[in-house]
Design goal:
With 646 residues, the protein is α/β, with parallel strands linked by helices. It has helices at residues 7-10, 36-58, 67-75, 95-98, 113-120, 132-158, 164-171, 191-205, 207-211, 231-242, 251-254, 261-276, 287-290, 302-317, 357-367, 379-384, 391-407, 415-429, 437-456, 492-513, 521-536, 571-598, 600-613, 618-625; strands at 3-5, 63-64, 79-84, 88-93, 102-106, 123-126, 176-177, 220-224, 246-250, 279-284, 324-330, 348-351, 463-467, 478-481, 615-617. The chain binds adenosine-5'-diphosphate, zinc ion and magnesium ion. The site of adenosine-5'-diphosphate has 17 residues, from helix 10, helix 15 and helix 17.
C-alpha cells in the first residue's frame, strides 16, 4: 500500500528492493549448452586404447612358467635358447624334448644364471630394448592431445561461423506453432490486458487496414506482471485468436556459453519469422536476456550483450509492413535495459495483474470446466477466500481439490475439498506473502484514506482506481489518480493538498485502527521529498524566502535521485530548512486528519466496500461519497477520459 500512484508512479519499471533476488541464476562460463563432458569421454577412450595397445605390443609371448621351473629346465637341458630382458626372460625349449615351444618367466636376481646357461650349453643373449615406443607415448602423444584439445576449445570460443556454431544453432531450431488452440476464452481476470491485446489481434488479422493510411503496426508488446498471472497464456491466446504462427523462445535460451551463438539464434529467428509473416514472436522471461547492459566488476557479460544488441538491431531492422509482432513477458521489468523500452521496440507495456475477486471466480470457472463439482460448490466463495492468488495458483488449487476428493473416493469435488486445498496452498504460499485478514483490513483503510482525501480536496487529480489486490511490485495496494489535463505548473496550494493526500493513508489507519503500520513508508518518503523540494528548490517557504538551495538533484532522463548530495548552505540554514519541512508536513498531516474525521463514516463505507470487491473504480468511489463526476476542461483534449466517459 506504499504508494499513491500517479500516472508516473504507474510505471512498473521503478526498481524496488523486494524484487531483487540474491541467488540469481546466471549463465556461468560453463553454463547450459557447453559440452566439455563429451570431450572428456573422447580423451578417456583414447587413453584406454593406448593402454590396451601397449599391453598387446609389449607383452612377452609364450607360456608363462615360474623361475624355478625355468631353472630346472635349463639344468635338465631342455632349453635351446634364451633372451634375457630387463624384467623378463623369454626363450625356446629344444625341439626334441618340448617341441620347440616358447616360454617366458619373470627374471629374479640370480648371479649364477649365466654359469648355469653356459653349463647347459644354451644360446643366450641380452634383449635389445627398443626405445621409440615409450618415447612416443611419453612425449608426442600428450603434445598432440594438448593441441587437439586447445584447438577444439579455441574454435568453440572463437566465435567463428561454421563448425560448432552451426551445430549449436541447428540444435535449438525454433519451430513455429502454426495452429494455436488457446483463445481469450481460456484467460480470465485480466480484462484490461485482454482489451489491449485485442487490438494487437486486429493488427495481425488485417494488417492492410492499418497500414494503408501510412500507419505503422506496433512492433513490440511487453507483458509485465507477477509470476503465474497468465502472461504466457495471453501471448498464446493472441496467436490463437489471430490464427497466426507462434514462435516462442525463452530469454534464457538465447544466452549461451559462447559468444555469438545467441546473436546467431536471434538472426535465425527473425529470418524464419519474416518468411511466415504475419506471425508472433514471443520471448518469455525477457529479463534473462534483456537485463540492463552495464560495466560490472566481474567483467562484462559479453554474450548476453551481443545477443541483446542483435535483438535490438533486428527489431529496428525488420520491415514494419510485415505484421510481425514481437511479444515478450517478464516479471521483473525494472531490470530491463532501457533501450528495449524505447519507441519502436517494446514501447507498449501491458500490465497483467493478479485477479480481483470477480476475476478469480472466472478463472476458477475456466479451470473447473473439466472437473466434476458437487452442486453445493460455490466458486464465488472459493474466490473470496483466495485473495492474493494468481491464475496459476488457482489452477493449482482446482487440481489439488480434485486430487483430494479422488483420494477419498468421492464421486465429485466438494466444498470441503476446496477448503482443505486452500489451507494447504496458503501454507505453501506463506513464503510468497499472502495477506492475512488483518493486513487486508489495514491496507483497505489505508487506501480508502488516500482516496477520500484526494476526492475531498479541490484541484486534485480525480481518483481513477483503488485496489487492495497485492501486486508483484512490492505494493500491497494502490490508489491511482489520473490527471484531467496535462499539468505544467503546480501551485503551492496544490502541493500542500498533494501532501495531505500522501498522508491520507497513514492518517486513516490512525483514526480507524488507533495504530499505524509500516505500510506508509513510501508515502512518507515521497511526502518528505516533496516538502523538502518546496523549501529548497521552489522557494515556497515564507521564512526561508525565494532562494534555491538545491539545484539539479535529479538525473535528467531517469527519475532516480542522485544520492544524498547537499547544496552549499550554512548549518544554521540546514536547521531552518528541517524546521520548515517539518512544519509543512505537520500541516499536511493535520489537514488530512481533519478531512478524515469529517468523513469518518465514508471511510468506513469505502473500506468495507473495498474489502468486499478489492478493486474500486473512481466513479464507484464518487458515488459512495456523493461527489459529482469531474468534467474535463473542454479545450484540453489530450487528457485520458475517466472510464465511464469512454
Ligand atoms: P506467467 O507466464 O504469467 O507466469 P502462465 O501463463 O505461465 O503465467 O500461467 C500458468 C498457468 O496458470 C496457465 O497455463 C493457466 O493454466 C493458469 N493461468 C494463469 N493465469 C490465468 C488466467 N488469467 N486465466 C486462466 N488461467 C490462468
Ligand atoms: Zn499509501
Ligand atoms: Mg510465463
Amino acid at each position: 500500500m506504499a504508494d499513491l500512484r500517479t500516472p508516473s508512479g504507474m510505471n512498473p519499471r521503478e526498481p524496488r528492493p523486494s524484487d531483487r533476488r540474491p541467488g540469481e541464476k546466471r549463465p556461468g562460463p560453463f553454463g547450459a549448452g557447453g559440452r566439455p563432458a563429451g570431450t572428456i569421454w573422447w580423451v578417456l577412450g583414447f587413453l584406454l586404447l593406448m593402454a590396451v595397445g601397449q599391453a598387446y605390443f609389449l607383452a612377452p609371448a609364450g607360456q608363462a612358467v615360474s623361475y624355478s621351473e625355468f631353472k630346472q629346465a635349463v639344468r635338465s637341458g631342455q632349453v635351446a635358447e634364451v633372451t634375457v630382458g630387463e624384467q623378463t626372460i623369454s626363450g625356446q625349449y629344444k625341439k626334441e624334448t618340448n617341441g620347440g615351444r616358447s616360454f617366458n618367466t619373470n627374471r629374479i636376481e640370480d648371479p649364477k644364471l649365466v654359469e648355469d646357461l653356459d653349463a647347459a650349453g644354451v644360446k643366450y643373449a641380452g634383449e635389445f630394448v627398443s626405445r621409440w615406443l615409450p618415447e612416443i607415448l611419453g612425449w608426442i602423444v600428450p603434445l598432440v592431445l594438448l593441441f587437439a584439445l586447445w584447438s577444439f576449445f579455441f574454435r568453440r570460443m572463437g566465435g567463428a561461423e561454421g563448425g560448432v556454431m552451426s551445430f549449436a544453432r541447428s540444435k535449438h531450431k525454433v519451430f513455429a506453432e502454426d495452429d494455436v488452440k488457446i483463445t481469450f476464452a481460456d484467460v480470465a481476470g485480466v480484462d484490461e490486458a485482454e482489451q489491449e491485446l485485442r487490438e494487437i489481434v486486429e493488427f495481425l488479422k488485417t494488417p492492410r487496414k492499418y497500414t494503408v493510411l501510412g500507419g505503422k503496426i506496433p512492433k513490440g508488446v511487453l507483458l509485465v506482471g507477477p509470476p503465474g498471472t497468465g502472461k504466457t497464456l495471453l501471448a498464446k491466446a493472441v496467436a490463437g485468436e489471430a490464427k497466426v504462427p507462434f514462435f516462442s523462445l525463452s530469454g534464457s535460451e538465447f544466452v549461451e556459453m559462447f559468444v555469438g551463438v545467441g546473436a546467431a539464434r536471434v538472426r535465425d529467428l527473425f529470418q524464419q519469422a519474416e518468411a511466415k509473416a504475419p506471425c508472433i514472436i514471443f520471448i518469455d522471461e525477457l529479463d534473462a536476456l534483456g537485463r540492463a547492459r552495464q560495466q560490472s566488476p566481474m567483467g562484462s557479460h559479453e554474450e548476453r550483450e551481443q545477443t541483446l544488441n542483435q535483438l535490438l538491431a533486428e527489431m529496428d531492422g525488420f520491415d514494419s509492413h510485415k505484421a510481425i509482432i514481437i511479444m515478450a513477458a517478464t516479471n521483473r521489468p525494472e531490470v530491463l535495459d532501457p533501450a528495449l523500452l524505447r519507441p519502436g521496440r517494446f514501447d507498449r507495456q501491458v500490465l497483467v495483474d493478479k485477479p480481483d475477486v470477480k476475476g478469480r471466480e472466472q478463472v476458477l470457472r475456466i479451470h473447473t470446466k473439466t472437473v466434476k463439482l458437487a452442486p453445493e460448490v460455490e466458486l464465488r466463495k472459493v474466490a473470496a477466500r483466495t485473495a492474493g492468488f494468481a491464475g496459476a495458483d488457482l489452477a493449482n488449487l482446482v487440481n489439488e481439490a480434485a486430487l483430494l476428493a479422488a483420494r477419498k473416493d468421492k464421486p465429485a469435488v466438494q466444498p470441503t475439498d476446496f477448503d482443505e486445498a486452500i489451507d494447504r496452498l496458503i501454507a505453501g504460499l506463506e513464503k510468497k506473502r499472502v495477506m492475512s485478514t488483518k493486513e487486508r483490513e489495514i491496507v483497505a483503510y489505508h487506501e480508502a484514506g488516500h482516496a477520500i482525501v484526494a476526492t475531498r480536496l479541490p484541484g486534485m487529480d480525480p481518483v481513477h482506481k483503488i485496489s487492495i489486490v497485492q501486486r508483484g511490485f512490492g505494493a500491497l495496494g494502490y490508489t491511482m489518480q489520473l490527471p484531467l489535463e496535462d499539468r505544467y505548473l503546480m501551485q503551492r496550494i496544490d502541493l500542500q493538498h498533494q501532501l495531505a493526500v500522501l498522508f491520507g493513508g497513514r492518517t486513516a489507519e490512525e483514526i480507524a485502527l488507533g495504530e499505524i503500520s509500516t505500510g506508509a513508508q513510501n508515502d512518507l518518503q515521497r511526502a518528505s521529498d516533496l516538502a523538502r523540494a518546496m523549501v529548497t528548490e521552489w522557494g515556497m517557504s515564507d521564512s526561508l524566502g525565494a532562494i534555491a538551495y538545491e539545484t539539479g538533484k535529479r538525473s535528467r532522463f531517469l527519475d532516480i535521485p542522485l544520492g544524498p548530495e547537499r547544496g552549499v548552505y550554512a548549518e544554521e540554514t540546514a536547521r531552518l530548512i528541517d524546521a520548515e519541512v517539518k512544519r509543512i508536513l505537520t500541516e499536511a498531516h493535520d489537514l488530512a486528519r481533519r478531512l478524515l474525521h469529517e468523513s469518518r463514516e465514508s471511510l468506513e463505507t469505502v473500506t468495507r466496500q473495498l474489502l468486499k470487491q478489492e478493486v474500486m473504480e473512481g466513479h464507484e468511489l464518487r458515488a459512495l461519497l456523493g461527489v459529482p463526476e469531474p468534467v474535463m476542461d473542454s479545450e484540453q483534449g489530450t487528457a485520458p477520459l475517466p472510464p465511464e466517459l469512454r
